[in-house]
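Worked example

This section walks through a single chain of length 98. The input is the sequence exactly as stored; nothing has been trimmed or padded.
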Amino acid sequence: MSEDRPTPEGMTLDELREEIEEIDRDIVELIARRTYVADTIARVKAERDLPTTDESQEAQVMERAGENAERFEVDANLVKAIFRLLIELNKVEQRNQR
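Given that input, the structure is written out below as tokens.
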């Protein structure tokens, strides 16, 4: 949220909904960026004949997700569930590219 905007407590319902719309766009943009990078990783894995699944890397991603959730005071289980879904979708895409 930019500094010249009112705090959520000082916003009208319409302003709050606009804020949610902006946040939703940001989330989609970040998912698109993450997917692009994951697709690039998939190509590198295919070129190097590496397995689609890297359990060590997945564990690191999940650990970071939990740490970031705690840092921003968000339910870690919810954040981990979202990241698990993102990881699984990326793995399906990686398998389809092979």
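What to look for: The CA atoms of residues 37 and 66 lie 21 Å apart.
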